């Protein structure tokens, strides 16, 4: 069986890496539907995919609590109200391939713009569980650790990370056991994962084994080293890992998913398709496209009804193009007037995270 079949993915799924398994849908598949089908949802793994026996499974909730908990999946389902929410998950490495063209980014996957997908998640509110465990209101961070095994710096440990207590107590932050009406598949974190809407995907820890209430951010490698933002002059050779910004919220982003870079299309009316994603603080208000690098803009039309902080907005824009070569550019603006950086150079960082510069693709019309 191929890796794609093995992980219940679509035959057109693009595998970035077989081991650990990583991949995403072709962009034209991604913008077909507001909700991404499970077999097209991108996968980002740093280690193995643990096969967990749900009867043996226990989630431990420990740390600064009056009543630490040990919960089976059935306990979670029976003790706490079920909540459903549409959430777009975006990897911090989305669009890294464009940063790699500015300057090399060794040891990282060259994600295109497909490391993003949307699902309807079902689960329980993290805050309900924390309140049941008697959380100390003075505690500041909620750390998660996964039951997978990752090797870094000659050590083996589970993937982990943390979010501030304020975010953990917001009603949108879930412990999810279902994805689009089905139990999570092994590759997406069965039996339980965190879902932190508006945050980089790394904080949505899969195969969740432990929640720890503490005063400091997680000590896990993926909080203290990876998923940190450094200025453009910092490289692997001169980095001080104690510095840098631990990533949390996403950045405002817009992408052209169709046509593809390098396409040759008949001259005349060309319909661009794409997505725009908010930063989790303000909603996407407008998407615009340009054929002259921002001298003039055409406003796109939204294709999906939904407008909130946690999901993408799909859009289309119709342009009439004479024969010739074009660079198509897209950008978005949110309800408080934030826009995106114009150039990829401005956002380059040696780990290749958070690229939200104007999206540009080159096409030809004849
Ligand atoms: N959780 C565990 N335990 N191990 C991982 O490697 N990858 C993280 C996050 N949770 C990861 C994890 C990253 S970087 C992302 S972007 C999302 O899971 C991807 O979720 P998905 O594979 O369901 O799309």
Please outline what is shown here.
By secondary structure, the protein is mainly beta. 11% of the residues lie in helices and 35% in strands.
- Strand neighbour order, sheet with most strands: 4-3-14-7-10
Q: Give me the Rg, rounded.
A: 21 Å
Counted by DSSP, the helix tally is 8
Bound ligands: ligand MTE
Let me know the average pLDDT.
97
| SSE class | mainly beta
The dominant shape is: globular
Give the N-to-C terminal Cα separation.
43 Å
Low-confidence runs of at least 5 consecutive residues? none
Approximate strand percentage: 25-35%
What key phrases describe this protein's structure?
366 residues, five-stranded mixed β-sheet, five-stranded antiparallel β-sheet, 8 helices, 25 strands, globular
Describe the structure.
The longest helix has 7 residues, at 73-79. The protein is globular, with a radius of gyration of 21 Å. It has helices at 3-6, 27-30, 73-79, 96-102, 126-132, 165-168, 221-224, 344-347; strands spanning 14-17, 22-24, 59-63, 69-71, 83-90, 116-125, 141-146, 150-152, 155-157, 160-164, 174-179, 182-183, 193-195, 208-214, 228-229, 245-246, 253-258, 264-265, 268-277, 284-290, 298-299, 301-302, 313-321, 324-334, 359-365. The model has no long low-confidence stretch (mean pLDDT 97). Strands 4-3-14-7-10 form a 5-stranded mixed β-sheet. It is mainly beta and 366 residues long. It contains 8 helices and 25 strands. 45% of the residues are buried. 11% of the residues lie in helices and 35% in strands. Bound molecules: ligand MTE.
Helices and strands, with pairings:
Blueprint: H1 3-6, E1 14-17, E2 22-24, H2 27-30, E3 59-63, E4 69-71, H3 73-79, E5 83-90, H4 96-102, E6 116-125, H5 126-132, E7 141-146, E8 150-152, E9 155-157, E10 160-164, H6 165-168, E11 174-179, E12 182-183, E13 193-195, E14 208-214, H7 221-224, E15 228-229, E16 245-246, E17 253-258, E18 264-265, E19 268-277, E20 284-290, E21 298-299, E22 301-302, E23 313-321, E24 324-334, H8 344-347, E25 359-365
Parallel strand pairs: 3-14, 18-25
Antiparallel strand pairs: 1-2, 3-4, 5-6, 6-11, 7-10, 7-14, 8-9, 11-12, 11-13, 15-16, 17-19, 19-23, 20-21, 20-24, 22-23, 24-25
The chain binds ligand MTE.
Ligand MTE is lined by residues 41-47, 89, 91, 146, 148, 159, 188, 201-202, 204-207.
């Amino acid at each position: 069986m191929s890796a794609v079949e093995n992980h219940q993915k679509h035959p057109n799924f693009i595998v970035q890496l077989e081991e650990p398994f990583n991949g995403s849908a072709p962009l034209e598949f991604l913008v077909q539907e507001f909700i991404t089908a499970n077999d097209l949802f991108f996968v980002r793994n740093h280690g193995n995919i643990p096969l967990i026996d749900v009867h043996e499974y226990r989630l431990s909730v420990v740390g600064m609590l009056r009543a630490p908990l040990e919960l089976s999946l059935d306990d979670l389902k029976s003790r706490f109200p079920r909540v459903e929410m549409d959430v777009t998950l975006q990897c911090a490495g989305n669009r890294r391939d464009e940063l790699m063209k500015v300057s090399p980014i060794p040891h990282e996957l060259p994600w295109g713009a497909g490391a993003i997908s949307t699902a309807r998640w079902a689960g329980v509110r993290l805050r309900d569980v924390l309140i049941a465990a008697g959380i100390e209101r003075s505690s500041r961070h909620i750390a998660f650790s996964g039951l997978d095994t990752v090797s870094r710096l000659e050590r083996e440990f589970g993937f982990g990370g943390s979010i501030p207590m304020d975010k953990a107590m917001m009603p949108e932050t879930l412990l999810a056991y279902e994805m689009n009406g089905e139990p999570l598949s092994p590759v997406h974190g069965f039996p339980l994962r965190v879902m932190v809407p508006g945050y980089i995907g790394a904080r949505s820890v899969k195969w969740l084994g432990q929640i720890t209430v503490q005063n400091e951010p997680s000590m896990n490698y993926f909080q203290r080293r990876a998923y940190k933002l450094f200025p453009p002059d910092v490289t692997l050779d001169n980095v001080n890992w104690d510095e840098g910004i631990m990533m949390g919220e996403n950045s405002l982003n817009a992408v052209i998913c169709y046509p593809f870079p390098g396409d040759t299309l008949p001259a005349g009316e060309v319909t661009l398709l794409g997505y725009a994603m908010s930063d989790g603080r303000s909603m996407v208000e407008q998407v615009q496209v340009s054929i002259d690098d921002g001298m003039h803009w055409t406003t796109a039309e939204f294709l999906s009804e939904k407008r909130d902080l946690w999901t993408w907005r799909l859009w289309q824009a119709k342009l009439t193009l004479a024969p010739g070569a074009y660079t198509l550019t897209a950008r978005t603006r949110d309800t408080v007037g934030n826009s995106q950086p114009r150039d990829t150079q401005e956002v380059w960082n040696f780990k290749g995270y958070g690229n939200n510069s104007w999206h540009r693709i080159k096409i030809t019309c004849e």
